Every structure is written in structure tokens, then in C-alpha cells.
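TOPIC: backbone geometry
CONTENTS: sequence, C-alpha cells:
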Amino acid sequence: MPAASDRDGSEGNNRTLLYFGWLTLFVYLATPAGYLVDIQTSYLLKNELHATATQISTFRLVTGIPVYIAFVFGLARDHWNPLGLRDRGFFLIFAPVTSAAFIWMAFSSTSYTGLVVGMLLAMLSSRFIAAAYQGLIALVGQEKLMSGRLSALCNTVSSVPVVAGAFASGYFSDHLAAKEALLLMAMVTLSIAVLGLWKPISVFGHAYEKPQARGADFVGNVRRLVKHKAVYPALLICFLWNFAPGSATPLQFYLTNELHASDSIYSYYNGIFAAAFIPTFLLYGFLCRKVSLNKLLWWGTIVAVPQMIPLAFIQSPNLALVLAVPIGLMGGIATAAYFDLAMRSCPPGLQGTLMMLVDGVLALSARAGDLLGSWIYHSGAALGFTYCVIATTVVYALILPLIPLAPKALIATRDGESIPEVKAELSNDVRESEPG
């Protein structure tokens, strides 16, 4: 009997991983914040509208506003039950809305203002999809004690559309008009609505009835979120990890303007960079069952601190493509560990809220870091890009003193293990959420 139970549990976990693998693929293929749209619009601004590096950074900063306030969409996910289908209801409603925004952008006249408005609409509706996806994966990760494996899976699968988007956007920038690219995105986005019809029992069976899914009213949930100590180190670590002044616009301009690379080289660099993460994501999926999250946080961060230093030695476009491999490899363990930490840190019933807070923090820090990097790049004359790399390395080093601030009980276990301290805290949170 125990053997049969173990087998059933393993099969259920495998079906859970299969579902989230497909869901992750469709969500990241369709996101308006992905490389396919982001790089396409950046080259549209640079080459057709003759925008400067600062203007492009500002465009990215402004159109990311729905992401910066992503916790609002997370709260909506945790309190709203559209069509009586919970997370699947969000997929069925907002995937078609996002698709419509892409179609509008494709047929509107090309202007800076038009691109800003269209991207804002697409980002706004897509945040509801992201909230349902992020909240569901964190909830299941907590309930099934598999946040580490889900982190490894989702980071690995999400890299596939990033890699494909990077190479495809490079091709599109040379061969395909922006209109066709946007219409392609509209069609891909509709696939999420189709996926919303799928309801595997291994994922949705009683998922919303378990203690981890139980919340309070709006005021009570906000109070519990603020009091939840695990929230703060997770958010701060994610903010610093994505605050990389040298990795976006400054690198793009350094490659194309100073090293005289073609527009597609920057896209190819991002594709190789993202692909290089995959081996260490897979390694994390193995290690998280053998090693505690605490050790993985330390190991991953120590390796990641000098991640961007090779960029300072780029002397040719081809060298940039070669160095993208070790740069990507150095960041995989840290990325998976930080996402694992975020899932473990969610208060009961507030998975959508916290994961969307993380989502917003990641986007805001990336845009703010890019804006700072653009300023450093232009103000630093010949050494501007080198200064960007130094700034990025210093920021990453600041993550190390934040790791001890995470609750020890939360990060002391391997994936699949539970400990009394966390169970006791869960029971206490559930009691506080009950009326009266």
C-alpha cells in the first residue's frame, strides 16, 4: 500500500509538472513584455522614429506601469472568481482582450504616442493572466511541497519562448514588418483562452479548499500581507537581482554604435544568454531535492555576483555572443532559488498578491536599472559601459546580506519536506483569516 501511494503521488506530481509546463510556455509566448514585442518595438523606435537611448528606456518604463502596480491584479485574483472558474476564468476572459490590443496596435499609425497607448492596453489586460498563472503556481507549489521543482520547470520552460523570441525578433527586425509581428502575437495570445478549458484533477482537485488557499476579507488580507515577515527579504532580493544597469539599453547601444554590430546581434546575444540559463535551471531541479533552499540561495548568489563582469571585456560582436554563454550559466541557480523563495514566502490565500508584487518589483527594478544604466552610459564617455558593468556587480553583491533575513524555518528544508514551524505559522494565519 505505501508503494502504491508513493506511485500515485509521483504520477500526480508528474501530471502537475506537465500542466504547468504547457501553461508556462503559452503564457510566456504571449506576454507583451517578452522579447518578441519588446525588442521589435525598441528597434521600431530606434530606426523608424529615431528615438534616443533615454527615450527608449522611458518608453519601457512608462509601458511597464501595469506591471509596477501588479499587486493590484494579484489582489483581484485572490478576491475575484470570474465565471465561477477561479484562475481559469481569468484565462478565458483576458486572453482575448490582450489579443484585441495587439490587433489594434497592428492597424494603428506608427507614432511614439500610439505605441505607448497600445502597449499600455496590452500590458494591462495581460496582468490579469499573469496574476492567475503566478497565483496558481505558488498555491500548488505550497500545497504539494514542490516549489523548487516548479521553479526549475517554469524557469526552464519560460526560457524557451525567451530564446525563440530573441532570435525571432532579430530575424523580424531585418525581414518582417512590425504589423505582422503584432498580428502573430495576437494569434498566440488566443491560445491561452483555449488552455483555460483544461482542468487537470492533479492541479485543481480541491486546490482552493486547502488551508494554503484560505484568505480573509480585503482589509484582513492587506493586514496579513504587511505582517508577513517573509515577504520583505524575498521582495528586496528580487529587486536587486533585476536591477542591472548594464544589461539592456546600454548593451544594445554599445554593440550597435560602438562595436558596429547589426541590429540582430543584440537579439542573438539575448537568445544565447537566456539559453545558457537552462542547464543550471535543470541542475536546480535536481539539487532542490537534495539540498536545502538556504544553501542554494548562498551558492547561487555567490556565483552570480560577478556574472556581468565578462561584458567589460567585449571587443567585438562575436566575442559578445561567446561570452553570453558563461554569463547565462552563472545566473541560473540564483534565479531559480529566488523564485523558489518567493513561492515559499506567500501568505495563505495571498499567492496572487505576493507573486504579482514580485512580478512588479522585477519589472520596476529592470526598467529603473536600465534608465540609470542609460544615464551612466551617456555620462561616462569612453568608459560609460564599463561603469555600467561595475554598478551591476555592486548591486548583485548587496543580495548577500539579505539572505540571513529570510525566516530560517522557511529556507531550512529541501523540496518535498515540511517542518512543524511552517505548519504552525500556516495554522495561525488561517485562524486569523476566519471571521469573528
